[in-house]
Amino acid sequence: MGFNDRGNSFRGRDSNRGGFRGSSSGPREMHKVICSDCGVETEVPFKPTEGRPVYCRDCLPKHRKF
Ligand SMILES: [Zn+2]
């Protein structure tokens, strides 16, 4: 107890619903893409760039060598 009393403000997650305001981390818009590696259909929270490969969650780590 006590933990919930503090910090449980109105700025919590509930205010995230249908908000168009959020500057950097705006509304979650998922885009359906086909993984360039395994070919599975997946969704990414960003708009895929044409011509650039997009990977699913499983394949993404394999291609992240940066
Ligand atoms: Zn994949």
List of distinct ligands in this structure: zinc ion
Radius of gyration: 17 Å
State the secondary-structure class: mainly beta
Helix proportion of residues, in percent? Answer: under 10%
- Tell me the series of helices and strands, N- to C-terminal: EEH
Question: Which helices and strands, and how do they pair?
Answer:
Blueprint: E1 31-34, E2 41-44, H1 60-63
Antiparallel strand pairs: 1-2
The protein binds zinc ion.
List the defining traits of the structure above:
two-stranded antiparallel sheet; mainly beta; binds zinc ion; 66 residues; 1 helix; elongated
Task: Tell me about this structure.
The chain has 66 residues and is mainly beta. It has a domain at 29-66. It is built from one helix and two strands; from the N terminus they run ββα. The chain has one helix at residues 60-63, and strands spanning 31-34, 41-44. Strands 1-2 form a two-stranded antiparallel ribbon. It is elongated. Zinc ion (ZN) binds at residues 35, 37-38, 40, 55-56, 58-59.
